[in-house]
């Protein structure tokens, strides 16, 4: 009798089932509640608390979407470990270079940190090597850290977990140490909030989302091409939010000709994505909203040699033109990956959408379906010809969600699943295995660009404050080299507005924000820029770099560890400070770092030519 139904007992543990069955056999009407059951319920209760706090950490981290890019979204929750549990501190990373989420949460929790548990949606990753976030936990007395996902970047993955455990903290990672079904939604939240970084790390392309609005009969415009407006005002507001979360928005030439869009977030927040137009022939109007770059920059990507005269017209308006030997979505996203972009929103017509899907670059789809019917044999559809002749070939979305927005229905889903947490990124050692004719050791070149790279601290955007005297000799602490450099475009200017511009840049919340601000002010108010800027900007940069590497010993050691190597700032678009897309750049940042390195080792043999920067003691 006891073995009946043994394969599917009503309790999780066989011993409990056995004792309950014995109790009923002895005449008890209901099973006896043994102490072990309450222990189980206790564990489930704590798991439920862990899951809810982790979902909250992911929710917090999402507040910075669009601002932290190309860095991860970090959120942190600190809670007491009592049976009820209580949140005592929260924080999220606004942007790279601002106060870490972990530090914010520790400061908010104060003395309640002792013995508490910290929840972070992603493993902390201090690219600059100062371990600020980890130190905050350790010094505050946190005893346990629950991590949603490990850091997807290979050179940071697992380091924080190991460091915290070596300090005696208990570290639990979802899916590894905590495997209960209770954590499924929390783990999914952590994956989704940093999906762009996971895709970029695993696939080496930016996370690409295709967005379109269509009628019930699958049309994105009337036969005449008229398309305003298919979706409701509420749906359009959601689109503005999507733009505000993206690094760039891509449209095709036909969209520019027919719709004359602005592609701004408007109601979606302060982040302004780059606007990108793909056009093989450059058959584009000379007057268009996208050519107004006073607020938001625009890039036009085209086929090499297309309408050279029109390229000059665009350049005169401040529009950047990038040529490709053959224009296709895959090469464009590869280029945007090199520029450091994390997420791309495609708002194009059916022809370009089909090309992007066929190229395998689209990861997610947002389809707004309006309760309208327009008909028309020649009315365009959201996706053009894909070459499919049977329904069995149809692409199916996974992890589909449905949401009613006003009168419309938003259908969202992934064409490609969120990548595994162990992305396969070819290492230097694997290069020769991929192509035996290549040897990564022939040329001792170290490339650096984004702060998350192994040598990311060489970037001007690394969050290392520097302290230097102003024109009056008073020492000022700048949040980063980039803050200092951008502000000094206006130092000494005779224009009365220059001082306010300097203060705006000084107060910028992140290096990225300082860079956007300085470039925009220089572009919009060129007369405000100091008259000698072109001749002194390398001196300004060198002064800031020398200060940075002089006051941070670990940075100086990193720089000295590269002796004998060529340093190249791998920006594909900055042809002055960077090496350029095809090595055509002047690489002045790399050259200045090599000059500084030579000065540190007392060797002038590596002194780069044509640099007149004078070293100023700080």
TrEMBL record:
This is Uncharacterized protein. It comes from Cichorium intybus. The lineage of its organism: Eukaryota, Viridiplantae, Streptophyta, Embryophyta, Tracheophyta.
